[in-house]
């Protein structure tokens, strides 16, 4: 199962850039004993996120889905806001970040990274 984006994934991600900030939805399924490794990854990643203007908006454990097909339950959900797709790419290419990705890769058996763009807001 997919855990890490490929170079082709990252290139497409940049090609489809509408501009502006994104919120990355992370759906995570942990490998056996993976939570400890993921906790180490997040501990180390916080400084790097800050360096690129990103922030963890939400992190929580998944519960039994209310509405979902079989196999769509996730162990954890994270929302991370990045100032741009470019900032995300710079972060994942950073040598300091590359040194900690093994903790994330080892921790997960499956993941979804879904970039989202904010809907326009209307003033009353």
What topology does this entry show?
Elements: H1 7-15, E1 22-30, H2 34-51, E2 55-61, E3 76-82, H3 85-93, H4 95-98, H5 101-107, E4 108-116
Antiparallel strand pairs: 1-3, 1-4, 2-3
Helix pairs in contact: 2-5
Question: Portion of residues in helices?
Answer: 25-40%
Give the CATH class.
Alpha Beta
Number of domains: 1
Q: Largest sheet at a glance?
A: 4 strands, antiparallel
* Rg, Å, rounded: 15 Å
Average pLDDT = 93
Please provide the ordered H/E string of secondary-structure elements: HEHEEHHHE
Strand runs, count: 4
Return the CATH topology: Alpha-Beta Plaits
| Oligomer status | single chain
Decide which structural class fits the backbone: alpha+beta
Name the strands of the widest sheet in spatial order: 2-3-1-4
Please tag this protein with its features.
single chain, 124 residues, alpha+beta, Alpha-Beta Plaits, four-stranded antiparallel sheet, 4 strands, Dimeric_a/b-barrel, DUF1330, DUF1330 domain-containing protein
How would you explain this protein's 3D organization?
- By secondary structure, this protein is an alpha+beta fold.
- The chain is built from five helices and four strands; from the N terminus they run H-E-H-E-E-H-H-H-E.
- A four-stranded antiparallel β-sheet has the order 2-3-1-4.
- Helix 2 (34-51) packs antiparallel against helix 5.
- The longest helix is centred in the middle third of the chain and has 18 residues, at 34-51.
- The chain is globular, with a radius of gyration of 15 Å.
- The model has no long low-confidence stretch (mean pLDDT 93).
């Amino acid at each position: 199962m997919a855990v890490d984006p490929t170079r082709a994934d990252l290139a497409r991600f940049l090609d489809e850039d509408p501009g502006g900030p994104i919120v990355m939805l992370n759906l995570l399924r942990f490998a056996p004993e993976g939570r400890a490794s993921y906790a180490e990854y997040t501990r180390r990643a916080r400084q790097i996120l800050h360096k690129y203007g990103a922030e963890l908006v939400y992190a929580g454990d998944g519960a039994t889905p209310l509405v979902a097909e079989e196999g769509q339950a996730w162990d954890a959900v994270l929302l991370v806001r990045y100032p741009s797709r470019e900032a995300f790419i710079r972060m994942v290419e950073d040598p300091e970040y590359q040194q900690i990705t093994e903790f994330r890769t080892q921790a997960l058996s499956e993941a979804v990274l879904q970039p989202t763009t904010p809907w326009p807001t209307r003033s009353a």
